[in-house]
């Protein structure tokens, strides 16, 4: 029902993933707007988004939505916010995420005392094809990174959403107050007109 009449070619759809049509700034503003408008408490929204962001630091790309939803439910977060939070992992950030988690994992496992660069042929298929050499270090490095990322995203977002919701409630109260005042004025005007009509009727009877 809401699909395009003429679907975009594959190369344009792929390009939109790398560089959104409205630019990253506009896309970021849209994500922030969606988060602010989500129903729920600031905790649930922030916990959900933080869950999606945290999962983005794991190498299980095809399972990010499922893992984000599961983690969000575990911490009583908003599942929709969790899905939005997975945008933290995107073609622009994955190279840096993979480099960090792979390097940290190698260091934790004792494979090296200094950070290592990723293999030149690094890709998702390369990660899956080498479970012990690449996937295991990324999992080991990704889990502590995801935990830290959860709190980094949760705390500021909770305050931001709470502030937005307070401001929105104030605006709604002001709007309701103006509507009530307008209704009172209208009621008073109607009563005044009715009194004038009644007074004229009495005057006409005399």
Q: What brief labels describe this structure?
A:
mainly alpha
Summarize the structure in words.
- Helix 3 (42-55) runs antiparallel to helix 8 (131-205).
- 26% of the residues are buried.
- Mean pLDDT is 79; it is low at 10-19.
- The chain is rod-shaped and about 110 Å long.
- It contains 8 helices and no strands.
- By secondary structure, the protein is an all-alpha fold.
- Helices cover 74% and strands 0% of the residues.
- It has helices at 10-18, 23-37, 42-55, 64-74, 79-85, 94-108, 124-129, 131-205.
What would a concise description of this structure say?
The protein has 206 residues and is mostly helical. It has helices at residues 10-18, 23-37, 42-55, 64-74, 79-85, 94-108, 124-129, 131-205.
Helix content: over 70%
Output the structural class. mainly alpha
Mean pLDDT: 79
SSE string: HHHHHHHH
| Tally of alpha and pi helices | 8
Number of DSSP strands?
Answer: 0
Largest sheet: none
Radius of gyration: 28 Å
First-to-last CA distance: 70 Å
The global form is rod-shaped
Task: Report low-confidence residues grouped into runs of 5 or more.
Answer: 10-19
| Beta-strand percentage range | under 5%
